[in-house]
Amino acid sequence: MSHEPPLPALTAADSEVANLVEAEARRQHDKIRMIASENYVSRAVLEATGTVLTNKYSEGYAGRRYYEGQQVIDQVENLTIERAKAVFGVDHANVQPYSGSPANLAVYLALAKPGDTIMGMALPDGGHLTHGWTVSATGKWFNAVRYGVRKETGRVDFDQVRELAREQRPKLIFAGGTAIPRTIEFATFAEIAREVDAVLVADIAHIAGLVAGGAHPSPVGHAPIITTTTHKTLRGPRGAMIMTDADYAKDIDKAVFPGLQGGPHNHTTAAIAVALGEASRPDFRDYAHNVVANAKALADALLERGFDLVSGGTDNHLILADLTSKEIGGKPAAQALDRAGIELNYNTVPFDPRKPFDPSGIRIGTAALTTRGLRPEHQPQIAEWIDRVVTATARSDESVIDTVSAEVGELLAEYPIPGYAA
């Protein structure tokens, strides 16, 4: 088995790098990949990222470039923009940001000044670093106010959101995050933002594919600015987009370029176009709904095995489990599961008494395994494997690792991945 598309030129020119690429392809094939921010892109997306478009430098925007020779690149970028507008139903899309964090920084640059008050979900409760967390530039440059979840429910505490917003009068309010297992209530956030004259920013990096496929409510009509990565559930390359109402288009474009970056990565832009084309098709809607069905089935199976799930379950692609009752930390559990062929990440949980690098929880996602073709009927077996490894690891028993790894491999042999084939 080998990487697809094949790598003959790379193998001939630099076998060391080629061998590492092959090793990673094999690793991705051999494990159930359940990191919530990861997925498998299609072979078409892979091919687009490896084209001669990477040779071209294109500072500026279509029709307004600083270098000549943009006749084709302008078409690529315009196509990507039009597809983004069609898939998400927005007025404007900027497809140039290099990744999600720079996309969020562009929003700050466009609409806020250092020292302004901004508001976002606290990182330990499921937010993102760039929503004003302490160690981020956004937490250092702005007066960051942070909301959280209710301890008894694990869901956003909207009484707290409203109270903080009225008291602090933030210029921006961010909705979204990295470890939120429930539906994001954009309408409620929008109501609070209007009340305090704040701009609501919806960060849908994790759920963009679910929104595109109709498996999660859209922020369009509630948030005038929407940021997202283009990988995760959207199944595109590692890039980002900012989508806005017409009123914010000019300011956002200026913030991206020349405010934060130079020329866009044209090969990535083309791959985003491919992914958006895929997301516009009926089978992508099936995929998005299957992601949620798999997550719900897995959550139910984990609950039956005594796992403590933040908020009691999931509405999307993501499950957050607190392992305190299993008498093991998230980090040793995640490392043991990786050795057993189940790849996920350790994660803080709300009100976590442990440190972020050794937290109480694990974060589990179903986007990649759904792309691979696994279905709800497979989830009880996956839950059993997770339970078996976590329980054994808590007892310092490594004997089950090899057994589970072999069982995982046997299942996955029937479900090939894009990018690796016989």
Automatic annotation (TrEMBL):
InterPro entries, per database record: PyrdxlP-dep_Trfase (IPR015424), PyrdxlP-dep_Trfase_major (IPR015421), PyrdxlP-dep_Trfase_small (IPR015422), Ser_HO-MeTrfase (IPR001085), Ser_HO-MeTrfase-like (IPR049943), SHMT-like_dom (IPR039429)
Catalytic reactions on record: (6R)-5,10-methylene-5,6,7,8-tetrahydrofolate + glycine + H2O = (6S)-5,6,7,8-tetrahydrofolate + L-serine
One Pfam family linked to the record: SHMT
Name of the top EC class for this enzyme: transferase
Location, primary (coarse class): cytoplasm
SUPFAM superfamilies on file: PLP-dependent transferases
Site description Plays an important role in substrate specificity, residues in chain: H231
CDD domains, per the entry: SHMT
Binding positions for (6S)-5,6,7,8-tetrahydrofolate per the UniProt entry: L123, G127, H128, L129
Molecular function in Gene Ontology: glycine hydroxymethyltransferase activity
Assigned EC number: 2.1.2.1
This protein's UniProt keywords: Amino-acid biosynthesis, Cytoplasm, One-carbon metabolism, Pyridoxal phosphate, Transferase
Biological or metabolic pathway of the protein: One-carbon metabolism; tetrahydrofolate interconversion; Amino-acid biosynthesis; glycine biosynthesis; glycine from L-serine: step 1/1
Cofactor requirement: pyridoxal 5'-phosphate
Record PTM N6-(pyridoxal phosphate)lysine, positions in chain: K232
Subcellular location: Cytoplasm
Domain Serine hydroxymethyltransferase-like: from-to ranges: 11-386
Xref: NCBIfam families: PRK00011.1
Subunit structure: Homodimer.
Family in the record: Belongs to the SHMT family.
Function: Catalyzes the reversible interconversion of serine and glycine with tetrahydrofolate (THF) serving as the one-carbon carrier. This reaction serves as the major source of one-carbon groups required for the biosynthesis of purines, thymidylate, methionine, and other important biomolecules. Also exhibits THF-independent aldolase activity toward beta-hydroxyamino acids, producing glycine and aldehydes, via a retro-aldol mechanism.
Protein name: Serine hydroxymethyltransferase
Organism this protein belongs to: Haloechinothrix salitolerans
